[in-house]
Amino acid sequence: MTENDINTLKALVVDDEQLAREGLALRLEEMAEVKILKQCSNGREAMEAIAELEPDVLFLDIQMPGMTGFELISEVQGDVMPMVIFVTAYDSFAVDAFKVHAVDYLLKPVEKERLQEAVAKCLENKAVRVANKEKQRLLEMVMSLSGKSEAAISNILESGDELREQVDRLAIKDGSSITFVPVRDIDWIDAAGDYMCVHANGDTHIMRTTMKDLEAKLDSTIFQRVHRSTIVNLERVDKVSSHINGEFHLTLSCGTLLKMSRSYKDKVKHFF
Prior knowledge:
Blueprint: H1 3-6, E1 9-14, H2 18-29, E2 34-40, H3 43-53, E3 57-60, H4 69-75, E4 83-88, H5 94-99, E5 104-107, H6 112-146, H7 150-159, E6 169-174, E7 177-182, E8 186-192, E9 195-200, E10 203-208, H8 211-217, E11 223-227, E12 230-233, E13 237-242, E14 248-252, E15 257-260
Helix pairs in contact: 3-4
């Protein structure tokens, strides 16, 4: 979708009164950000136009013979439902209008400023919808390429980190030799200054890196930070105990007892 598409609203004007319908259409045509796809004189005609033209927004009258504006909304499938701005001569339907998540509610005769405000709201809503669709598209693409879960990829996106490739093993240099430690064997990791202590299968391996870089290499559905200096393998946690001071203690399958600080207590949900 181009920037021009994002900044343009494709609209239907739905009203059984010809003069009201054409008058509103003329005012909307004066706005560069609105493109009127069609004018509809009743609900049935509008339903067909929605399915065929996929508008962004309906400028919709409420009191129409045959099918009211509310009845039209109830008939349209949710996945193709445009945004709705009600345009009516009656103020008594306002509460019901916002119950069906209308973007705005305009009273006839419509003031120019109020019409512009309603259009601006729709453009903001459209921008949010487009951003959410793009994020979902990116998630699905990365999931298909990396094999990672949606939760794991979402955590990386929300943290603002780059989508770096997660590894199956860590290469830990010790002098002139390198030890390869399978990630699945890691019980927990803790920080010691500029170094990370990687505990796996009863051994401790020292590597020079940062906690943030190490976090990015590990699958967040398995490894979670529970302290500013500790990452734990969730699959190794046998017991979670609350402490009187608001902290939690984690007992690992290897017998190690780790502290989960209060600032990370929201991570408890990952253990259930």
